[in-house]
Amino acid sequence: MPTQASLRFAYSTLGFIAALAMAPAARAADEPTPARVLFKEARELVAQGDYQTACPKFEQSLALEAGLGTQFNLADCWEHIGRTASAQALFVGAAASAKAAGQSEREQVLRDRAAALEPRIPRLVVEVSDPDPKLVVKRGDLPLESDAYGKARAVDPGRYQIVAKAPGKKTWKKQVEVAAGSSIVTVEVPRLEAEAPEPVVAAAEPKPEPKPLAPAPATNAPPKDHARKGPSLAVWSLGGVALGGFAVGTIMALKYSSANSDAKATCPSSFDCTPQQIAFHDQRVDDARSARTWAFIGFGAGAVGLGAAAALLFLPQSSNPEKAWVATPVIANNGLFGANLSGRF
Questions:
Q1: b/e for 102-134, b at 16 or more Cβ within 10 A?
Q2: N or C: which end of the chain has fewer CB within 10 A?
Q3: pLDDT tens, 285-312?
Q4: Spatial contact of 150 and 128, defined as CB atoms under 8 Å apart
Q5: What is residue 135's DSSP assignment?
Q6: Under a CB-based contact definition with an 8 Å cutoff, are residues 169 and 191 in contact?
Q7: In order of start, what are the domains of the chain with their CATH numbers?
Q8: Are residues 35 and 64 in contact, defined by beta-carbon separation less than 8 angstroms?
Q9: Helix, strand, or coil here: 33?
């Protein structure tokens, strides 16, 4: 017999399917996304010259929604606050994204911006006197590979802590200041000193192991209810919910693919676009987001319904009428569907 907790989980799962399918997810297409809100706020701060506050908002926006425009604005923001090495690396990464998207003009602009930063980027060299294979050298929280020892690496201006550790050795630390400009700062990690041996502590006498307890006498297990053969009405209902969810997810996925392709094909160079092209592009992007949301909902509902149907199909079901349960299909006014389960066990 299944436990009370497992049956309760299976019974309650289907109640959430209908609620998930009926959630007003479509309104997300009419509202600005968190990434867009952060991007807009950052652009307003840049217009006011407040790059220190704008850069974290660009970073959060890029983490939520990757985009070439966000990459460019974040790299430009980092350049203004002096993070030249990070800005150059992001310009190069954005150029690679532009190349992959077939936007050669944008790619060239981004590579020119990266090249212009080269004379302003400082370098840090970490020399290691004793390259022990077990030695771990970190620059801040970033571990350095052994092949990076003795090589000049581009870094942002600022203060760094170099830490070296090895088993049985004393930890070595040093603070280093890297100034803005094209200077090269070198730090040498010396041979680590051995740690003092720990005092030997006498081992405690082992305690006698307790004798195992005698096994408890076996008791007669209560008779089990005879399981009913064949899928029940509830299993068929859950299967219908799963099939409907996968159908909705597939249709919405196809709509998302079509809308996304239309958006990409509209003025792909992003230069000299007409107002009509911009409006059509934005509309198809919104359509794609809405379809993607419904696709996630459909596939999620289908997966949960299928899992619950499989679980109830293979769990033993009581033949006692007082413990029977009923699955009731639910159809909403807007055409979305789900199922509710109720009963006792």
A1: ebeebbebbbebbeebeebbbbbebebeeeeee
A2: N
A3: 888 888 888 878 878 777 777 777 776 6
A4: yes
A5: -
A6: no
A7: 4-29+226-343 (no CATH), 32-119 (1.25.40.10), 123-189 (2.60.40.1120)
A8: yes
A9: coil
